[in-house]
Specification:
Elements: H1 3-12, E1 14-16, H2 17-23, H3 28-36, E2 44-46, E3 49-53, H4 54-64
Antiparallel strand pairs: 1-3, 2-3
Helix pairs in contact: 2-3
């Protein structure tokens, strides 16, 4: 695999902040506040655009998902 192909593959693993907001039916501002308060997974900033690794978002969702069991 060439360097260019590797870069393209890595970009496929990123999700924009705006897409996370859509996915969770929240405003971008809410996502930004959560990020500032440490409630979001690590992020990557490229220029003025914020990205998350899709695997980190899925893991975050899994961690927040209720099992339906009472403690």
């Amino acid at each position: 695999m060439t360097d260019r192909e590797q870069q393209k593959e890595q970009l496929k693993q990123l999700i924009r902040e705006s897409r996370v907001a859509e996915r969770w039916s929240k405003s971008r501002r809410t996502i930004q506040r959560w990020r500032a308060s440490g409630k979001m997974p690590r992020h990557i900033r490229i220029g003025s655009t914020v990205f998350y690794l899709i695997d980190d978002i899925i893991a975050h969702e899994d961690a927040l998902t209720s099992t339906g069991k009472e403690d």
